[in-house]
Design goal:
Number of domains: 2
Order of helices and strands: EEEEHEEEEEHEHEHEHEHEHEHEHE
Number of strands: 17
Distance between the termini: 50 Å
Catalytic activity: 8-oxo-dGTP + H2O = 8-oxo-dGMP + diphosphate + H(+); 8-oxo-GTP + H2O = 8-oxo-GMP + diphosphate + H(+)
CATH architecture of the largest domain: Alpha-Beta Barrel
Cofactor: Mg(2+)
Strand content: 15-25%
CATH class of the largest domain: Alpha Beta
Keywords: DNA damage, DNA repair, DNA replication, Hydrolase, Magnesium, Metal-binding, Mutator protein
Organism: Arenimonas caeni
Structural class: alpha/beta
Radius of gyration: 21 Å
Number of helices: 9
Helix content: 25-40%
Family: Belongs to the Nudix hydrolase family.
CATH topology of the largest domain: TIM Barrel
Strand order of the largest sheet: 10-11-12-13-14-15-16-17
Bound molecules: 8-OXO-2'-deoxyguanosine-5'-triphosphate, magnesium ion
Length: 317
């Protein structure tokens, strides 16, 4: 209907609580409620007029019997469910007093971060788990001028902490690209970083590295092109592409352009509001791309993003 506005989302606050061993607390939703049986981050709905952190403190006192000593924003995930929309606003809690107990008869579990993904959770929680366990920045290589120059930059980027990198070299002949990807793989492995190659499923399979699909490749596929455990990502610009990325079981997507950018002058920027609305329709982790800087991670996280992706601004000079 023209002018029809969707219901405003329900604001939900939830906490990342850690024990002395770094494990994170999950609570199981009890029978008879929506999403019953799913494991979630403890929390609940913000009441009218209530500040989010006050709501968080109240919910954790009611549900777990603890008092929090602070709360730092982690990620705020807009998510559309069949009968409602929510914003799952998640905070890192640096400390708390008391012992967490399931005061509403809910089961509790302390999970190491790397095991979180093995718990069945509501769709809105997948981006939260990704924010806790995967890199906030995704570096996309500028078209390499020479192999040596590219590898020198890669070394610098890895030394500066880059942990997820896309080798995008659309102009290189196949053999030169394969050689460069092998050298890059060695360096990324040594640094504990992930490497994805743009647009080359065969090369990714041969080298056992990740694959970043163009939106055109994404839409032509009918299944996931590499086994689970080998990263597959895609460039997306709209709801159909994101839905296809989710259907294929991809690991993450890049969505943009958020702002105008010199590398894609013809594309219409979507802005943060549209980024959030598109994010709502899928539960994939999504990097924002387009006219962003590495320091825009917090802004991306406020709109439900995993973080930011970029080309020039993201590489050491
Ligand atoms: N607390 C929490 N809620 C989540 C998570 N993921 C997710 O989709 N949700 C959804 C489930 C619910 O639809 C909504 C939270 O509502 P709720 O029913 O738990 O709220 P509440 O604790 O205030 O409980 P109630 O008194 O209204 O039953 O958010 C999560 O990780 N933690
Ligand atoms: Mg609750």
């Amino acid at each position: 209907m023209p002018g029809d506005r969707p219901e405003p989302p329900v604001h939900v606050v939830a906490a990342v609580l850690r024990d002395a061993r770094g494990r994170i607390l999950l609570a199981r939703r009890t029978a008879g409620r929506d999403l019953a049986g799913a494991w979630e981050f403890p929390g609940g709905k913000v009441e009218p007029g209530e500040a989010p952190v006050a709501a968080l403190a109240r919910e954790l006192e009611e549900e777990l019997g603890i008092r929090i000593l602070g709360a730092e924003p982690l990620v705020s995930v807009p998510q559309a469910y069949p009968h409602k929309r929510i914003v799952l606003d998640v905070y890192e809690v640096p400390g708390f007093t008391g012992t967490a107990r399931g005061l509403e008869k809910q089961a509790l579990a302390w999970s190491p971060p790397e095991k979180l993904a093995s718990y069945p959770m509501p769709p809105a929680d997948r981006p939260v788990v990704a924010a806790l366990t995967a890199p906030a920045r995704y570096l996309v290589s500028p078209e390499p001028e020479s192999a040596a120059a590219f590898l020198a930059k890669l070394d610098k980027a890895l030394a500066a902490g880059a942990r997820r990198i896309q080798l995008r070299a659309r102009a290189l002949p196949a053999q030169a690209l394969a050689a460069l990807a092998m050298d890059a793989r060695t360096r990324c492995q040594a640094a504990g970083a992930e490497l994805l190659v743009n647009g080359e499923p065969g090369l990714a399979a041969d080298l056992g590295i990740g694959l970043h699909l163009t939106s055109k490749q994404l839409m032509a596929l009918s299944g996931r092109p590499l086994p689970a455990g080998q990263l597959v990502a895609a460039s997306c610009h709209d709801a159909d592409e994101l839905a296809q990325a989710e259907r294929l079981g991809l690991d993450f997507a890049v969505l943009g352009p958020v702002h105008a950018t010199a590398s894609h002058p013809g594309a219409t920027p979507m802005g943060w509001e549209r980024f959030s609305r598109l994010r709502e329709g899928v539960s994939l982790p999504i990097y924002a791309l387009g006219g962003l800087r590495p320091q825009d991670v917090a802004t991306a996280r406020r709109h439900g993003g995993q973080g930011v992706a970029g080309i020039r601004a993201f590489w050491p000079k």
